[in-house]
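Course assignment 3, question 2. Fill in each field.
Student: A.L.
Task: Predict the tertiary structure for the chain below.
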Amino acid sequence: MSSPIASKRKVIPIVAEDGDHETIALYAPEKKIYPRSVSGYFSNIRWIMVWVTQIIFYGMPWLEWGQRQAVLFDLVSRRFYLFGLVLYPQDLIYFASILIIAAYALFLFTAVAGRLWCGYACPQTVYTEIFLWIEKSVCGDRSAHIRHDNEPLSTHKIARKGLKHFLWISFSLWTGFTFVGYFTPIKELGLEVYQLNMGSWEVFWVFFYGLATYGNAGFLREQICKHMCPYARFQSAMFDRDTLVVAYDQQRGEPRGARSRKADLSTLNLGSCVDCNLCVQVCPTGIDIRNGLQYECIGCGACADVCDTVMDKLGYERGLIKYATENSMLNGWSKQQTWHRVLRPRVLIYATLLLAIVVGLVFSLNERKPFKADVVRDRGVMARVVEGGKIENVYRLQIMNTTEQVQHYTVSVSGLQGLEVTTDNHLEVAPAQGRWLVVRALLPADAAEPGSHKIKFRIEAVGMDAHDSEKSTFIVPNN
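Answer field:
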């Protein structure tokens, strides 16, 4: 008996000059997938996520906060604006925290219900849905699209295909423009586009991101999920028998076969599955969920929606294909029993860690000082004795104003009896700017023994309950 793989092989004979050789392809070529449109509970959730994510993505750059763009990653000045928050490269810990939160959220969602991210919020899924909607609007649904593709080349076919690709390319370029708008103020970028005066890097990234959107969502589609996305490969390490996945109820569905609506299943010895293959036609990755869980499944629930539609037409109970766990399918558990096992220690640990990190990040941001200070000894000026017999050390003080208002600061020093700052200790710093200040500290000649002494600079924000302290050393030279 031939294996299923062998039966799918495509033999391509290539006859050599002597007529004795042929080349055989060992793998079947990839077939284009034409996903059938579907409506239902999970489809509605997917489209809600499409709208939510895209309203945020396309709308956020146009929001203003005060006199600037609300969300802007200004790489030139090394400042990252998030509404009322201004972050600097020194705030890398916050970006690391956000990445850790994203990772733990992914672990949590995967442990609970598999590839929820892939099925509902992944950019690949979202943009594929949008491109499929454009394709359906221009070329028709699955059957019409297949029929049009198989038609011989004609003016009507070229016009239809041209319109589809024009809309795809326009949408992709707008996506690229929006992406760059997070790094260059989008209103300035729009003016540059209008005047055809964009910088070379801006042009590159608009077209690069646009091309990526056009290629991934228009052509590669399921190939990204099946072959390029690493998540599909290591997701099994986060699955167990109590993870919710899209599953086919074999006990109820088998044996499958066609029948009339009024047929008696017990007489025909048939299960609930009518073998209509609609679950395969709506799958964006082209798999048959009835063969069990497969790594290509992105958990979008499209097969469950279309199967419920068929069950409604036949008057059968819904849920032949549904979100369920492996244990619940084997043991016939109720929803309450299933969810009791879903909320297992592993999930609770993930949720606790995620909550703790989120609370810690929020607390840290709330307690974040409105300025940063750094003091270093001026290595170009040695400790020296100045007029009056006093000992002078010179320091360089940097103050970075992390607020968006002009701030004033005072500088004082402690650690040695009689130590004082002799330079103007009042400093004004512009909004979201940094400024260097040369600080001269004087000490009476007989106030300390020769050598190195620890001192502390105190920087206070005038009119704000905020201060910072920086340690340094004061050098007393030998006489």
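Instructor remarks: Residues 36-368 form one domain. The mean pLDDT is 87.
Grade: pending
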